[in-house]
């Protein structure tokens, strides 16, 4: 049987060797006689797993000591509410950079908690196909924080830079490009991301937050939503997503074995370049709406010139074991998500199919 390549935007492909390790340890973790799914989160076995996962993540990303790492539940969407609950700190306003679907949803949720939600910059004028030039951003120096989405999963728009916000804390939804490239964590007040793209299975959300931003939650904030309480309890105020943390820990070790984030980034650049070249050299058969400097390395959207061929494309791709290629219902067309775990062979198989399809239907 030829290999199956899963281009889903999330839950997404995991490294095969990690899945094999999970399979091997499923019934008996390291001679404990228990599956990780059966362990008490307070037991020494799982406490070791969680501590090692955090240690490895800190090493991979170079997370400074004055930052807390939290393993939480609720997905990144829950952070749309938790961030303002924790970081408003009595200030009335929040600034946002609006680059598409997920940043708009984050703004919508923030309006429930902040007196003022300001759009510091937006790319809506050109259909969310680019990142606004930083020189034109209008940042309120009194804002509680500035929020941006570093990679818009739906639209395929990715920031090629980390914004400079001065004294205003920088908050980033990094869900779909987390661990895809080196990042200077010290430039952020808070980073968050759902696990189901580059980290592990759905159900886990990682928050990396600077310590001085903790402890000033908005009145009425639920106990579970207080970062300070979660940090003081080592993310175990209640039962955490134990199995997802375990798998994430295995992924962190896999990243280390690949050579770390610099090596991961180079491989992601190679994969994305190959796929975009296939689109750009198709003589218009395929098109990508995103302006070139802002094209995502993780999520590649493209459309067929003749939309009547969409269903045939998806069906024939599936027959070649190229799965989950259909675009999001909001955007239509196609979308190939090529996260860290997608091998170069998968992109080669997809581009080969795209060329064959264009030849037979062009």
UniProtKB/TrEMBL annotation:
Q: List, alphabetically, the CDD domains matched.
A: PSAT_like (cd00611)
N6-(pyridoxal phosphate)lysine-modified residues are where? Answer: 197
Aminotransferase class V domain location is 4-350
| PROSITE patterns listed in its UniProt record | AA_TRANSFER_CLASS_5 (PS00595)
Cofactor binding remark:
Binds 1 pyridoxal phosphate per subunit.
Swiss-Prot/TrEMBL cofactor(s) = pyridoxal 5'-phosphate
Annotated binding of pyridoxal 5'-phosphate, by residue: 76-77, 102, 153, 173, 196, 238-239
List the GO terms this entry assigns under cellular component, sorted alphabetically. cytoplasm
Mainly resides where?
Answer: cytoplasm
| EC numbers for this chain | 2.6.1.52
Q: Which UniProt keywords apply?
A: Amino-acid biosynthesis, Aminotransferase, Cytoplasm, Pyridoxal phosphate, Pyridoxine biosynthesis, Serine biosynthesis, Transferase
| Gene Ontology biological-process entries | L-serine biosynthetic process; pyridoxine biosynthetic process
Q: Which domain of life is it from?
A: Bacteria
Which cellular compartments is it found in? Cytoplasm
- Give the binding site residues for L-glutamate: 42
Its annotated pathway reads:
Amino-acid biosynthesis; L-serine biosynthesis; L-serine from 3-phospho-D-glycerate: step 2/3; Cofactor biosynthesis; pyridoxine 5'-phosphate biosynthesis; pyridoxine 5'-phosphate from D-erythrose 4-phosphate: step 3/5
- GO MF annotations for this entry? O-phospho-L-serine:2-oxoglutarate aminotransferase activity; pyridoxal phosphate binding
Reactions the enzyme catalyzes: 4-(phosphooxy)-L-threonine + 2-oxoglutarate = (R)-3-hydroxy-2-oxo-4-phosphooxybutanoate + L-glutamate; O-phospho-L-serine + 2-oxoglutarate = 3-phosphooxypyruvate + L-glutamate
Membership in a protein family: Belongs to the class-V pyridoxal-phosphate-dependent aminotransferase family. SerC subfamily.
Subunit-level organization? Homodimer.
Q: What is the protein's known function?
A: Catalyzes the reversible conversion of 3-phosphohydroxypyruvate to phosphoserine and of 3-hydroxy-2-oxo-4-phosphonooxybutanoate to phosphohydroxythreonine.
> What is this protein identified as?
Phosphoserine aminotransferase
Species whose genome carries this gene: Chitinimonas arctica
Q: Print the organism lineage.
A: Bacteria, Pseudomonadati, Pseudomonadota, Betaproteobacteria, Neisseriales
